[in-house]
């Protein structure tokens, strides 16, 4: 039976919240990018995913300059956030797989996936850094935590070093909301034309399709390229 984790996108904000219009704009921008690609076939739809990633990154970079808050500790060499399962949409998993198959280090990535037998640690965590950083999922992009000790204790289940100020959860929620809004906008046009937009667990989903370059075409034909065991839940409409 499919598990039921939190919704893709649930702002739960007061209508007068000044961030709401900005998040709605991010949602609609991703929706327009994917909707425009639909008429050109599955390859265009897959290419729309990195376009949505770039749009989300640009929007957050612009917004970050105007947001009060501590700088994120997130950087190469940390990697504590990579000690947890990651949720992706079906189309995002297919697009990332398509990109990775054509990378010069595709064989290395394939070996990492083949050696991965489950657990909390992402198969692409290498020396504290993400081996697929340019195409990492939206859920990864939305993380923003000033105190890496919190991630160490929460995600990696490791006791942080003693001493120093008390550990507090000081993560900004705005980037998470932005990237979730883009994820919702990216999948909505696909759901409305009857395509599967299930949420999947990233690592086992990618492992299932990495060596099947026809998986995108199969998905577009209404087939199921992913096994039920990687499925988390079906598509959920955004809350208004």
Structure characterization notes:
By secondary structure, this protein is mostly helical. It has 9 helices and 5 strands, in the order ααβααββαααβααβ. The chain has one domain. The protein has helices at 20-38, 42-64, 90-101, 106-115, 138-141, 148-154, 174-192, 202-209, 215-220; strands spanning 87-89, 125-126, 129-130, 199-201, 231-233. The strands form 2 sheets. It has a 3-stranded antiparallel β-sheet with strand order 1-4-5. A hairpin with a 2-residue loop joins strand 2 (125-126) and strand 3. Helix 3 (90-101) packs across helix 8. The longest helix has 23 residues, at 42-64. It starts with 19 loop residues before the first helix and ends in a 7-residue tail after the last strand.
Distance between the termini: 28 Å
N-to-C SSE string, H for helix and E for strand: HHEHHEEHHHEHHE
Instruction: Please work out how many helical segments DSSP would assign.
Output: 9
- The overall strand count is 5
Number of individual domains: 1
Q: Major sheet: size, sense and barrel closure?
A: 3 strands, antiparallel
